[in-house]
Every structure is written in structure tokens, then in C-alpha cells.
Amino acid sequence: MRPGVLPGTLPTAVALVAAALAGTAAATAARADAIAALAPADDVRRAVVVGPSCQVWEPDGAGTWTRRAAGGCAADVHGAVLAGGSLVVVGRSVPLFRRDGGLWHALRLGERGRTVLGAGPRPSLAIGRLVFVWAGGTWKRVGRAPANVTALWAASDSQVLAVADGPLLHLAGGALTPVPGAPPPPVVRFGGDRPWAITADGGAYDVTARRVHRPTRGGEALTISAIASTADTAWALGTTAAGWALARFHKGTWSEEAAPPLAAGDAVVAIVVDRRGALLVATARGDLHLREPGQAWTAGTRALALPTGATGPGPARAP
Q1: Out of 210, 246, 268, 296, which could bridge 259 as a Cys pair, Cβ 3.0 to 4.6 Å?
Q2: Topology at the third CATH level for domain 211-305
Q3: Which residues contact 172 (CB under 8 A, 6 or more apart)?
Q4: pTM over 0.85
């Protein structure tokens, strides 16, 4: 008998360690396959898929996204955008990370605080109370909110909407001030080229028309999880008691649409739409659902093509 080891306990201990390691490996693999963000593009088939630690799946433009590089970044990713040809991701706080030539670099804008990535046709982000918009090939500081920004949308460096622990704000004279007629329920998230937002109670708020909508399926209002829009059409993805539902708003009317086949218990990371009317939905578990205009939903494919024997650089970290 080995000193300090009771009879029959060593195999049990080894088994428990092996089981723990297997569980850790499975959890790591599951996290590596998860999706944390979509970086939209002019064509949804060109959107970039990003994992929680900056794993990147690049599009081929035909419905397949391939991960070709190892490594990543030390960030809990919750947003991604293409700015000036580079992929930029944000975590819960600074620094941001920028990907150039397959390598990640910490991106600092001289501020500290929690970070929020904006929606809308122009890349934007907030660090604490400060708002930045991509303009002229750089991140331009455009305004300060009265509190930390929690949601953001931008069409230019002068057309900006935000939420900062209170009413809906817009940019005016370098400051973010309340929008008259904003809805009583607070806005929690923006989406789309035309400014739509999700209210705290799951409604769809058309910022331009200053109206809260309650799209339905079978007479029951959706609790909206994600929203996307073009100049004249909005798409709201949410749930009812019967499951996932998709609604389309066009020419003043909501219509029920076929929802993507989301797995029970899954969560929507993002829905994006392009000018053709094609849709792409990404889920937290790692599924991609693609719908071309006038067609049924199809499954997007993710592939792995890491260089043989190469582990890639270690994760980028804040200097």
C-alpha cells in the first residue's frame, strides 16, 4: 500500500480527475464553438462570425464560415464591427481589440471604463460616458452622455442615439440630450440601418416615428430578443408561449414570417439583414441560419482549417 493512500482510493481518484479533465475539455470545446457576435457586412453572407475569445470564422460569401487561425484575445467578446477594413471587437471593458493580418492588437482610445458597441450604418462605440464614431479613418470622439452608455446607434458622426441609464438620448451640440417623445419603457438595445430599438418590456420602438410596436403571432405579442432593419423594412425576432417567432414590418403593417429553426433553450446573438432583404441569425450555441429573399431558411456551415501543427500566437492582452 502506498503511504498516505487508502486501499481502493487511487483508482477512484484517478477516475475523478479524468472525469473532471474531460468535463473541462468539453466545456472548452463548447466555448470555442460558441458565437458571441456578428460583424455585419453589405451582404449578410460576408458577415464575420466571432467567438467569445476572438475566435474568427471568415465568410466565403456562399454560406460557409471558416476558422483559419488559432489564437484569440483575452476579452469576453460581446460585440464586433468592421471599421476601415479591420475587425474590431469589444468586451466588457477596455481595451478594445483590432485584428490586422490575422493578428490581434489591443486598441486604446485613451479612456477607461465599460464598453458598448453601437448598432446602425456607421461603426460606433462608447467607453463609459464617452461616445466615439468611426469617421475619416479614425475613432472620433463626438459627445458625452450624462451617465454610462448602455446602448448606442449611429448613422454618422452627427447622427447618434444612445441610452445612458435613463431616457433615449440624441447628439446635439456635442452633448447627448433626451429625445422628445421617447417611450416610457426604457430602451435596452438598438438595431438596423433605420433606428429601431427593443424596449425593456420586449416591444419594438421605431425611433423615427416615435412609436412602440407590439408585433404578434397568433394574437400573442412577441417578446423581442433581436431586431434588424433596412431603410423601409424591420425584422423582429422573439418568442411567444409557442416558441420562436419572426415578424416583418413593411409599409406600416406587421406580418408573420417563418422563424428560423432555433434549438430549444438557445439564445439569439444577433440578426442582420442586408439591402437585398437576406437575413442571417446567429445563436449563442453556435448555429447560423441564413435566409435568402423569398426562400426558406438554410443552415450556415462553419468549418475549421487551422494550419497543421500550428497553435498560432497566444491571445492578445492589454499591454
Answers
A1: 246
A2: Thrombin, subunit H (2.40.10)
A3: none
A4: yes
